[in-house]
Design a protein that fits this description.
The chain is of the alpha+beta class. It has eight helices and six strands. It has helices spanning 3-11, 14-23, 61-69, 116-128, 149-161, 171-183, 192-200, 204-217; strands at 28-34, 42-45, 77-85, 90-101, 104-114, 143-145. The protein has a six-stranded mixed β-sheet, with helices on both faces. Strand 3 (77-85) and strand 4 (90-101) form a beta hairpin. Helix 5 packs parallel to helix 7. The chain starts with a helix and ends with a helix.
Length: 221
């Protein structure tokens, strides 16, 4: 099947996306991704979209990992994992359905439900009942939602440098950050090397050199 036919099949899921989003209420969204272009994968997103994402946006880090791990070869979907929208500060219950053409994966149908208020309410109720909270660490969400590669890169760098203050990063610290980004398959996204170069304040040649060193040592693929 050619790309035009693949896209037609993906767009045929729009009614299903609308149905799922509406069935889950006003704080839910559904997206259809075309995985032929990781950096501009979003073909459709429902009108209510708490993550603020738009058509033409990229895959998340977690979605890239799902594709690369080939988990879709043995299952049709993965459900109810924790996501976080950094920009809006929302906690999301997320699920992904793998859209296939025979044995080929061609896209994803993703559902995100904002459960921030429910979690707050649950905490208040448990506290009022004097029950110890078995609290999930919400800073360790499985998936990070942004509006593109730049946001994902900025999020990873911010988490790795929060304790360092304003001092200049050492070569080892830069290498550690680039390794983390490599493990998230960030460098598969178009424009990722210039973005990392700008945000770390090093040359693109330095970023490429670190990537090659990390690949040679087997730290990243």
């Amino acid at each position: 099947m050619d790309q035009t036919e693949d896209r037609a099949k993906l767009l045929s899921y729009i009614p299903m996306a609308n149905f799922i989003a509406q069935a889950n209420g006003s704080r839910a969204e559904a997206l259809i991704h075309d995985i032929s272009d990781f950096n501009h994968s979003i073909l459709y997103i429902t009108p209510n979209n708490p993550t603020g994402r738009k058509v033409g946006g990229s895959l998340t880090d977690y979605a890239v990992r799902l594709i690369e791990s080939r988990v879709w070869e043995t299952t049709d979907y993965t459900v109810n994992y924790l996501g976080r929208s950094e920009e809006q500060g929302l906690i999301l219950r997320s699920s992904t359905y793998f859209i296939k053409d025979g044995s080929r994966l061609i896209g994803l149908l993703c559902i995100n439900v904002d459960i921030t208020e429910q979690l707050k309410a649950a905490e208040i109720i448990e506290r009022s009942l004097l029950i110890d909270m078995k609290n999930t660490d919400l800073t360790q969400a499985t998936e990070t939602f942004g509006t593109g590669a730049d946001e994902l890169i900025a999020t990873v760098i911010a988490k790795k440098t929060a304790h360092l203050g304003n001092r200049k990063l050492s070569a080892d610290e830069n290498r550690t950050i680039i390794r983390e980004l490599g493990l998230l398959d960030v460098f598969r996204l178009k424009g990722s090397v210039p973005a990392v170069s700008e945000q770390l304040g090093v040359s693109e040649q330095t970023v490429y050199r670190y990537i090659q060193e990390l690949k040679k040592s087997g730290d990243i693929k």
